[in-house]
Amino acid sequence: MGVVSFLIKHRYGEYGLLSYIDLELALSVSIVASFNFFHPQTRNASVDQLLFNIITFTIGIILSTLVIRNICLGMGQDLYDGTIISFLQMRNRRAIFLLSYFIDVLLIGGLFLLIAELVFLLSSFTPPITWISIFISEYLLLCNSSYLIAILIKRPFRSFFISISLIFLVLGIEITGNMIIFNYLLPLDLILGHLAYYAFRKVQI
Amino acid sequence: MSVIDAINLTKRYGDIEVLHGLTFSIEEKSITLVIGPNGAGKSTLLKIIGGLINRTSGYISVLGEDPWNSNKIPRKVGIILDRPFLPPYLTVIDIVKEVSSEFSYPLSDAKRLLEDFNLVHFMKNKVRELSAGTKQKLQIVFSLIKNPEIIIADEPTANLDITSRYEVYNTFAVLREKMGLTVLISSHIPAEILAFSTHVLAINNGIMKFFGKVDKLLRNNFLEEFYIVVDNIGKALEALKDRRIEVIGNQIRISGNLAEISKILSNAGVRIFYVRNSIIDKSIKGETGWE
After folding, report:
1. Does residue B222 surpass a pLDDT of 70?
2. What average pLDDT does the segment B157-180 reach?
3. Where are the transmembrane segments (chain A) (predicted)?
4. Looking at this predicted complex, what is its ipTM?
5. Under CATH, what is the fold of the domain B2-215?
6. pTM, to two decimals
7. Per-domain residue ranges for chain B?
8. Residue from the list A1, A83, A202 with its beta carbon closest to the beta carbon of B101
9. How many CA within 13 A on the CB side of residue A116?
10. pLDDT of A164-178, one tens digit each?
11. Which residue, of A53, B42, B54, B117, has the fewest CB within 10 Å?
C-alpha cells in the first residue's frame, strides 16, 4: 500500500479509523432515535423537515468538530514539526495533498453518509434526500476552512482554536434558523478546498 | 556531468536576504561538504535543493528539473535533517515496511540496513521513544530505502556519537562508490567529514566564499600545528620537553614534523589516540571568513 497505508497509520493509528466507524454508527442511530423521540407516531422525516434538519445539522457539527481536531492536530502538527517531509519524500505535493484530504475529510464524511443511509434504511426511516446536500455543504465548509487555516498558520493549536470559532459561527446560523443557506454554499466549499490545495502547493517547510 | 546547477540563486525572507546570488555546479557521484558558520544559509540552500522551500530568484536545477515544481525529484532525492521528521507514533518496523513497499525495496534488504545501523533492537519501538541519535539513524535508513540518486544531509550526524558518525560517513562513501550516489552534506565539524568529501562549498552570510575540490581548499601557507590526544600527558610532556607545546585538556598542541613527534612519543611509551591537523580548520576558516 505504501504511502496511503503510511498516511492512514500516521493519522489514525491502529484502531482510529475503526473508532470513527463506531462513532458514526452511534451518531446515525442517534439521528433516528432523537427524531423518533419527538415524533413517535411517524418515521417520516418530511413530516417535520425543520426538526430533522436541526438534528442532522447538529450531528454534522459534532462530526465536523472531530474531523477538524484531526485536521488541525494532524496536518497542522505535521507542518509545524516537519513530519510532512516524510510524505513529501514519497510523492509530489499534489498527490500528498489529495491523499491527506481524502484520508482526513472525504473518507470520514463518505463513511458517515454510507452508515447513516444504512441505518435509516434498516430503521425504515425515510428522510428527504436533500439532507445529504446540506450535510455535505456544512461538513465541507468547516473541514475545508480548517484545512486552509491549518496550512496557512502551520500551528496545530492556534488553527484548532480558529476553526472552533468558525464552528460557533455555523452554530449561530443554525440557531437563527438560516440553515437553508447551506443549500447554496457548495461552490464556496469548493473554492475553499482549492485555496487549501493552492496553499499546500506553496507552503515552505 | 553536473546533477545540480545553480545560477544567481537568491533567497529572501522578508527584508533579509539569506542567500546572495550563489552560482555553482555539483558533479555527479561527488560528496560535497557545505560548510559555514551558524546562520550562513547552509540549511536554506539544502532545503531549496530538496524542494522544501522555493527560491526568491535565480535558477536552480536538480537532475535537470526545478526541485520546487518537479513531480519526480521527491522520489529521487533523499533528505536527512538535523531534527527528526518521521511520524512519531509509528513503530520503526511500520515505517520501514511502508517505505519499502512504496519504493519496491526488498524488505530483507531494508532489515539488513537496520542491522547495519544497529536499529534491529528498536523495531517495535515508536519513533518518539527513540533517542535523538537513533531517530537520526532511522532517517538515514529511510533515505537509503528510497534508493535515491542524490542525498541531501543537513548536519546528519549532529546527534550521533563518534562511532555512528563515522558509520554514516562511511555509508555515504561506500554508496557513492557502489551506486554512484551524489551527496551534499553540511556539518558543523567540517574537519571530520573533509576526509570523506570530494568537494567543498563554503558560504558565509549567504555569500559563496569557496567552491571546488578539497585539495584546492587546503592551504600550505599556514603554520602547521597538531592536536594530539595521548594516554599519558605527563609522559608526553617529559618526552617533548625541549619543544614548545601547550596542553589543552587531555590533548597537546604542538608544531613541527609529525613523523618525528610521533616517533619521540612512541619511544617514550606514550600511546597516541587521535591526531588532528590544524591546517584543515585554518584553511576552512580562512576561506569562509569564519571567525
Report:
1. no
2. 79
3. 17-38, 50-68, 96-123, 129-150, 157-175
4. 0.85
5. Rossmann fold (3.40.50)
6. 0.86
7. 2-215, 225-288
8. A1
9. 25
10. 999 999 889 888 878
11. B54
B225: phi then psi, degrees, rounded to nearest 5? -125, 150
Higher pLDDT, B37 or B281: B37
DSSP state of A82: S
Whether residue A96 is predicted with pLDDT greater than 90 in this model: the reply is: yes
| Dihedral over Cα of B95, B96, B99, B101: its sign | negative
The domain B225-288 having CATH identifier 3.40.1000: the answer here is: no
A88–B101 C-beta distance less than 8 A: no
Average pLDDT over all residues of chain B: 87
From chain B, pick out residues whose CB is under 8 angstroms from the CB of A75. Answer: none
Q: How far is CA A112 from CA A109, A172, B66, B133, in A?
A: 5, 23, 41, 43
Based on the number of CB atoms within 10 Å of its own CB, is A74 exposed (0-12), middle (13-18) or buried (19 or more)?
A: buried
A141: closest CA of chain B, how far (Å):
28
